[in-house]
Design a protein that fits this description.
The complex is a heterodimer of chains A (242) and B (240). Chain A has 242 residues and is α+β, with helices and mostly antiparallel strands. Chain A has helices at 12-19, 34-37, 93-114, 120-133, 135-139, 185-195, 202-219, and strands at residues 46-51, 54-59, 63-65, 69-72, 78-82, 85-88, 147-152, 157-163, 169-171, 178-181, 229-234, 237-240. In chain A, the strands form 3 sheets. Chain A has a 5-stranded antiparallel sheet, covered by helices on one side. In chain A, strand 11 (229-234) and strand 12 (237-240) form a beta hairpin. Chain A starts with 11 loop residues before the first helix and ends with a strand. The longest helix of chain B is centred in the N-terminal third of the chain and has 21 residues, at 68-88. Chain B has a 5-stranded antiparallel sheet, covered by helices on one side. Chain B has a 5-stranded antiparallel sheet with strand order 3-4-5-6-7. The chains are: A alpha+beta (242), B alpha+beta (240). The interface between A and B is medium-sized, with 19 and 20 residues.
Chain lengths: 242, 240
Amino acid sequence: MGIFNQYNGSSFIQLLKSDYPELVSDYPKIVIDSKSLGLIPEGTTITALKFADGVIIGGDRRATAGGHLIVNESVVKVFKTDDYSAIAIAGTFGPSVKMAKLLQTELEHYEKIEGFPLTLEGKATKLSYMVELNFPAAMQGLPVMPLFVGYDIYEKTGKIFEYDITGGTFTKPRQEPYSTSGSGGDRAASTFEHFFKEDMSLKESVELMKKALTFASKKDTATGGKGYIIKSVTAKGVEDIE
Amino acid sequence: MDIANFISPKQLLKIKSDIAEEAIIRANPIIAANYQDGIMVIAENPTTTLFKITELYDRIVFAGTGVYNDYEKLRRSGVQYADVKGFTYSRSDVKAKSIAGEYSRILGDIFSTQHTPMEVEILVLELSENNENNAMYYIPYTGSIIEERKIAVIGDIYKEPDSDVKKKNIIREHLNTLENIGNLDMTQTFRLLKDALSTVKTNNSILTPENIELVVLDRKINKDRKFRRVSIEEMKGMLT
């Protein structure tokens, strides 16, 4: 434990930066040229949608590189981050998955150190900080643009958080309870625009999400793969739908 | 001038041990035992948020007695160690043995090199697939590490208010007389352990669910994390 690390707070990320800097990615110091960018997997469509009991979040399963080469068709882009929240990642595959894993550890670490978990707002803020940390790398061609969803156990409602590339975050207000991201995000959003209804059942919302993802895959070569991954986040916790 | 130069090493160790033991005598004991579905840990604790039995990782629990500040520091370090290890490798790579080994190293260093030891006794417990393979490590302030089976007790040192005679291992000896402890169900084990704690009540308070801290590592929990804090209502239910 090197026992008694220098850092004694409740953040796992700060602990790594302070006592285990070798475990933190050093992207800003790497200079990437456009030719090497072609080797890095990216591209996707991810979506989040509110329904009667909470939120569902889902994404496609394809990873592409160099604009047109399919690298993988069974990638998982949606992760459970704790009992009442989940994240979907878009952008460069490597740093995105690392960010999701780091968020999982961060949330668990905080809960164990403090004795109680963060509020949903707190979790969303932490993710915002992590996206911001990645900003220099994003500017060099390694963006990470997640969608974060959770079930707020105090307000008894699902919530969607959208992030821009600098880490700026805003909660989706009640009138626009869906969000999309990734190269196919715009096309998926237009499907939601047409067919979204308030307080849909789980079945209806999953059908709508699949419709949106399929439409996105028709026009975006970076979206596709073997089916979709969809999870629901409700008062019952995070459940796998697909 | 360091006073240590004027005292024999043996005497120095005795002085440090006395300091630590005084603190442990003032604190309450903690009992851990196997039960049908895993491991149960019980302590007398009148507070509602300052816990003595806490989660380190999926199947690993920490229990500390003695000076709160000291075991709280060790607890936080343990959580940091476990999470860094789990993050760097995988969740299954975090084992109680390595954490206990680290605690042993630190406590030993502090005991031999610092003027005062950490006034604590700690337990690191790990749930395994079956009870025979559960790991229980007892690490006192000296840094020695003892592997226990079935039952582990810390803070098992007492002193009558007006005497200098220290009595040790009262709870441990009581538990050793109970034949089938280790495979009983949750209710039976809870009752037995509560009674064991009651054998050494030194002040006049009675043990009730309101001042008991009860934790289980429950194999039946359908998540990676098997730690569960038992509520007062549930304890009351088990006592009726």
